[in-house]
Amino acid sequence: MRPDDRQYLPSHEWVKLDEHTATSGITDFAVDELCSGNEGGLVYCDLPELGRVVDAGETFGEIESVKAVSDLNSPVSGEVVEVNPEIEDHLEILSDDPWDRGWLIRVKLSSDHVAKPELLDVVAYEELIAEKE
Amino acid sequence: MGLDGALLEDADAPPTMRFYSWSPPALSLGYFQRFAEVPAASEAAVVVRRITGGGAIHHANELTFSIATSLGNPLFQGPVTRSYARIHELVCAALSKLGCEAALRGDGTLLSDAQATGMCFHHSTALDIAWAGRKGVGSAQRRTGGRVLHHGSIKLGSSQYDTGVAELDGIADPSELAWELTEVFREQAGIRLQPGVPTREERMLADELGERALDRDFVRRR
Questions:
Q1: Chain A residues within an 8 Å CB radius of B144
Q2: What CATH class is the domain A7-125?
Q3: Which of A68, B104, B177, B216 has its CA 20 to 30 A from that of B95?
């Protein structure tokens, strides 16, 4: 069972909400789709500058694996206030621990933030994954 | 190549496969490549940056093909590596019909592997297509908004910057390759290609994206 303390996008990003901030990353399923268990397959991750404002559903970064560039989508709207400084040089963290050490960005939620209907709880996300496997 | 990007972005576009060659020949950089890490980029007369990943390709003496479709397409479902495997199987079958014993590299290295050139054909992985111990097909993808663009480059032989690659004996015209690929997609994947033309909106976006691919700032963005 994947963590139940966060929500998920169908495009396989997760978000963990605090009172005013949201931490996002990608799921183990996303990592496996990208590099099929070969952590060396992840070659580059481009994350946003601090202060960038992202909208829910908007691309906040890009990741390259096995010569394929894929979008990273933001589950929430707000201002990027922190970016994981370890990721760019240590992409293996995404394979080792996508849920904690592998977080990608922290966003200060916009004042008009409302939970998007596309966000899934862990049960719904597991069902989505089961359909794909 | 701008049209490939337009077909990727157009969610209403039908699954589309394109075949083309480049005039004049150009060097394309992978989306994330550093300009300074590809020595040929400082020498080539024309340099563009692709939106797909991977290494640099000298588009000379080769056939480029692209596939733009949704990620729900059976060719692309599942892990990235599975999609390469499916497409490479079809490309190998087409090359086989032309008398070329192409196969996935598997373990080991290739005679075409070379250090520090940044060129796609000088770097090989287990899933790459090779014959006579040399890489002959380059592949890369872009995935965005539930859609995917797959780029493939099939070499007829070496060129100024893609040195030491596999030679496709007896094929003088890239269109022969395109024809065999069309046949194999129909016979082995049940995909019947039909002629089509881009919409006005796709052509306009293609012009914009084509200009961006050539733009000096975009080419040298890294």
A1: 59, 70-71
A2: mainly beta
A3: A68
